[in-house]
Design goal:
Length: 428
């Protein structure tokens, strides 16, 4: 008798996820039980916990404290492959993802685009060299260098005028990132560096937070916004609301007709989505966010999903879902659930619904504001809760322990453990 030839099992569908941020990573983790091959592509080999990036920029934490290799996070997911690469084009007709420098495109059956956002200078991209944003580890380290070098240069400044310019720090944008950054710089100057220099007092440093709107933290209720303002002012931060920036250059800014001389500027005023809309040939809003269907798919192409800061997702109230980590995580988990059901031949879940847990922002070492709907807190209780939430959502037990111990050490001693001036860059 002739032996029967077995027919090889067909290869399972291929899901390609572009981006290893909160959305992409949660989608990959959610597909652990799916009958699919999963490939996650990112131009960096690590996942970054962006909410604490400002602490790297102000020498409170080291980069490794808030980042972890994507391979390490997903090594137990046997159906997930990690590819280091930069996407340069997507061919939806042929279902191919083209990577820079690689002649072998990735063929997909389902595509999830979660490429995040970058800073927007509202058409004034020439400002970026003078006022860097805070979206990457490289940017955080560059800002840290600028801040620390400013104090070092002030020690040897030849004139009082030059010292004042060096010791003036301007943070542009009154959202959570701007508020947290301004408070952290003020604490660095007034608490840790206060007695370390011989020719000047670091407590004389001038920190300004510039916001075009009438309130800082505009997503918070006005009473909490006002409490945040008072907390910043208690730290010595000058809060300038209703002040629109007209020009940024190497010597400062012009805002609302007023010249503010400063050698260190930080941009935290606006964001724009990645170039995904161009790759996909999709409709986007003014910020570059791709308009998606209620199930987060690309209208007219159910094989492609867009999530996180890259997508324009409308909530139940018709307003865009905020570009924050919890939203991206929920969207990633939703798409994973949808794909798992689709690949298993089951009905899809209901349309995506975003559940807003609340808003948190910290203002220094023992002050924060919290808005959880009916529950609103400020001061030390809100700060303790803020710390607990961020420790909980950090990826990796090691990172949680190190950040917790670092915060406790800093709280009780006033010392920061990452005050190293590294790398090279434009000298002040």
């Amino acid at each position: 008798m002739r032996a029967e030839q077995s027919t090889p099992d067909p290869e399972p569908p291929h899901v390609v996820i572009i981006g290893g941020g909160f959305g992409g990573l949660n989608c990959a983790q959610g597909l652990r039980g799916a009958k699919a091959r999963v490939t996650i592509v990112d131009e960096r080999n690590f996942h970054l916990f962006q909410p604490l990036l400002y602490q790297v920029a102000t020498a409170a934490l080291s980069p490794a404290d808030i980042a972890m290799p994507i391979r390490k996070i997903l090594w137990r997911r046997r159906n997930v492959k990690v590819v280091l690469g930069r996407v340069e084009a997507i061919d939806r007709a042929a279902r191919l993802v083209h990577l820079a420098g690689d002649e072998r495109p990735l063929r997909y059956d389902h595509l999830v685009v979660a490429t995040g956002a970058r800073h927007s200078y509202f058409g004034n991209d020439a400002w970026e060299p003078f006022a860097p944003g805070l979206k990457t580890i490289e940017a955080a380290l560059a800002i840290r260098r600028r801040v620390l070098v400013a104090f070092e240069r002030a020690e040897t400044a030849e004139t009082p005028e030059e010292r004042r310019r060096l010791l003036t720090f301007v943070v542009i944008g009154g959202g959570p990132t701007g508020v947290e950054m301004a408070g952290a710089i003020a604490e660095l100057a007034r608490l840790e560096l206060a007695e370390e220099f011989r020719d000047f007092d670091a407590r004389d440093a001038r920190v300004m937070l510039v916001e075009a709107g009438p309130l800082i933290l505009p997503s918070f209720p006005p009473p909490l916004s006002e409490k945040a303002r008072r907390s910043l002012e208690h730290l010595g931060v000058e809060v300038l609301t209703g002040t629109k920036v007209k020009t940024c250059d190497a010597d400062g800014i012009v805002a609302s007709g007023r010249r503010l001389e400063a050698r260190t500027l930080v941009w935290a005023a606006g964001v724009a989505a990645s170039g995904a809309a161009d790759w996909l040939g999709a409709e986007a809003d003014r910020a570059g966010r791709v308009r998606v269907a209620p199930d987060l798919s690309l209208p007219g192409d159910p094989k492609v999903f867009v999530i996180g800061d890259t997508a324009l997702v409308l909530g139940q109230d018709g307003k865009p879902v905020p570009g924050i980590a919890p939203a991206a995580k929920q969207e990633g988990a939703y798409v994973a659930k949808l794909l798992e059901r689709r690949l298993g031949g089951r009905p899809p879940p209901p349309p995506f619904r975003y559940h807003h847990a609340g808003d948190l922002a910290t203002i220094g070492r023992s002050s924060a504001v919290m808005d959880f709907g009916r529950i609103k807190l400020s001061g030390l209780p809100a700060w303790l809760l803020w710390g607990g939430v961020h420790i909980f959502f950090l990826i990796g037990f090691r990172n949680r322990v190190i950040v917790l111990l670092g915060w406790l050490w800093s709280y009780f001693t006033g010392e920061r453990g990452a005050r190293l001036i590294t790398g090279t860059g434009q000298e002040l």
